[in-house]
Design goal:
The strands form 4 sheets. The protein has a 7-stranded mixed beta sheet with strand order 4-12-11-10-7-5-6, with helices on both faces. The protein has 2 domains: 172 residues, Aspartate Aminotransferase, domain 1 (Alpha-Beta Complex); 249 residues, Aspartate Aminotransferase, domain 2 (3-Layer(aba) Sandwich). It has 15 helices and 17 strands. Strand 13 and strand 14 form a beta hairpin. By secondary structure, the protein is an alpha/beta fold.
Length: 427
């Protein structure tokens, strides 16, 4: 389940005391006016600094959610504050009918630091994946001469909330109530190459042909499941043999979160197309689709975004990119990730009947609860909140740890202390 779905269905969250103040009462100032598309934790956050946030009651929390893997540099980072201040005083938005220098600078940085040749900018991960789906379909029609193109995606995947991207998402619970869905998708188990090859054979026998394979380098919402290196390398080989496209969804795992700049680097492959959002802007909305030149088949009018690539978002995203590089944050991600996983494994060893596994890359990690335990990820998150630590579920049995990339060794130890205490209390 998604984090908001878990909240809606978890009685544990309802038991938390509501933090409010005279200045802000959710029952009066929020709920009557905002659509209830999220089950919200009963906390009203109003400011942040580094890896910490404060609610309207002044209570401090260690933030290991980071906007769900989005606040790359934490909160109120000086580089972002400076860039935001300068850019809003200069030029914040113009149409893409004109050249936007900041957009060109960001595209250049991304291209020079990845396997891609071109970039398209939008506002979110769902939009980036929509762009990739459209590009793959046009490539299928204009290059592969395919009449009924199919994109293979994985079970337990998550690619967004638009109609095309929830169809691409291999989880029926997200699709319920939104039919008719977009045709042209087929699902296969993740990390199972035999199943994928059978899917290709099945499709080849029908009247539909595969145009692309769309996969997350690590499944985030699907339970923090890292991709298998051999699986991805065989898929790359298949794509090369058949002339189809390999698309990597890097929305959650890109921008250094895996310990490498891009998740696909952990797998020893290069995608034809990959998508970004979340951490790219460090919390400022921006998404991107990047591709190799051989599949850059879009022409003027094929795709667009009013706000995509505006000067404000691009300038901030470029500052995030440059800060990752300048402050050598990838080393910190690798070291803090190892520290976190080692600490979580130690907790797992103390509670073998409760914790089944620890998995992840860099600073995207999952603590997997045993199927036999009555505990859910929402129970653990509730207990952590009570002790001043913000975490997020990645399914009913996986607790996700995605702190800002600037997190310190001391803050990792503090989080581990809270989790250890939570499991001792929860049994």
């Amino acid at each position: 389940m998604s984090p908001e779905t878990l909240l809606q269905t978890s009685p544990a969250v309802a038991e938390l005391p509501l933090n409010s103040s005279d200045a802000f009462d959710p029952a009066v100032d929020f709920d009557p006016y905002v659509m209830a598309t999220y089950g919200r934790y009963p906390i009203a956050l109003e400011r942040g600094k580094g890896c910490r946030v404060w609610d309207t009651q002044g209570r401090e929390y260690l933030d290991f959610v980071a906007g769900i893997a989005t606040c790359t540099l934490g909160h109120a980072h000086p580089a972002m504050v400076e860039t935001v201040t300068q850019q809003i005083q200069t030029l914040h938005h113009v149409s893409n009918l004109y050249y936007v220098p900041a957009q060109g600078e960001l595209a250049k940085w991304l291209v020079e630091h990845s396997s891609a040749d071109r970039a398209f900018f939008c506002n979110s991960g769902a939009e980036a994946n929509e762009g990739a789906i459209k590009l793959a379909r046009k490539y299928a029609h204009t290059v592969l001469n395919i009449e009924n193109p199919v994109i293979i995606t994985a079970h337990a995947s998550f690619h967004g909330r638009t109609l095309a991207t929830i169809t691409a998402t291999g989880q029926p619970k997200y699709q319920k109530g939104f039919s008719p869905l977009v045709p042209g998708f087929f699902y296969a188990p993740y990390n199972d190459i035999d199943a994928l090859e059978r899917a290709l054979e099945e499709l080849d026998r029908g009247d539909r042909q595969v145009a692309a394979i769309l996969l997350e380098a690590l499944q985030g919402e699907g339970g923090v499941r890292p991709g298998n290196r051999a699986y991805f390398q065989r898929i790359r080989q298949i794509c090369d043999e058949k002339g189809i496209l390999l698309i990597c969804d890097e929305v959650q795992v890109g921008m250094g979160r895996s310990g490498k700049l891009w998740g696909y680097e952990n797998l020893g492959i290069e995608p034809d197309i990959f998508t970004l959002a979340k951490g790219l802007g460090g919390g400022i909305p921006i998404g991107a689709m990047l591709c190799k030149s051989h599949c850059d088949v879009f022409q003027p009018g094929d795709h667009a975004s009013t706000f995509g690539g505006n000067p404000f978002a691009c300038a901030v995203a470029l500052s995030v990119c440059q800060t990752i590089e300048r402050e050598n944050l990838l080393t910190n991600v690798q070291e803090r990730g190892e520290q976190l996983r080692a600490g979580l494994r130690a907790i797992a060893e103390k509670h073998p009947d409760t914790v089944a596994e620890v998995r992840g890359w860099g600073l995207i990690n999952g603590l997997v609860l045993a199927e036999e335990t009555p505990l859910t990820s929402a129970d653990v998150v509730k207990s952590a909140i009570a002790e001043g630590l913000l975490l997020v579920p990645a399914g009913p049995k996986v607790v996700r740890f995605v702190p800002p990339l600037i997190v310190s060794a001391e803050e990792i130890n503090q989080a581990l202390e809270v989790i250890g205490k939570a499991f001792s209390l929860l049994g």
